[in-house]
Amino acid sequence: QVQLVESGGGLVQSGGSLRLSCAPSGSIFSLPTMGWYRQAPGKQRELVATLTSTGNTNYADSVKGRFIISRDNAKKTVYLQMNSLKPEDTAVYYCYAWRNANYWGQGTQVTVSS
User: Fold this and answer.
1) Tens digit of pLDDT for each residue in 40-76?
2) SS3 string of the chain?
């Protein structure tokens, strides 16, 4: 069982930046895909960005050019640098990982004030 631990959420003004981090607790061999999803109030959970261990990225159109996903394979940690934040980016952000099954973090709140 993989447990993902997120950090870095908070409150920021529109146009500001935040950086999210996520790492698995305990010992695990590898996580081929890691990434981030988000869920705003009253909406379905949606993809933000994913990154494979070989460097393939996938971004939601709404965050392209503003968010950057990266990972440290040695630490099995994934990061999400969020720039030029907008109020519509307000959501709970969930860390995601895949290794033979889908794994989710507990979520971290990101609030962008106008």
Assistant:
1) 999 999 999 999 999 999 999 999 999 999 999 888 8
2) CCEEEEECCEEEECCCCEEEEEEEECCCCCCCEEEEEEECCCCCCEEEEEEECCCCEEECCCCCCCEEEEEECCCCEEEEEECCCCHHHCEEEEEEEECCCEEEECCEEEEEEC
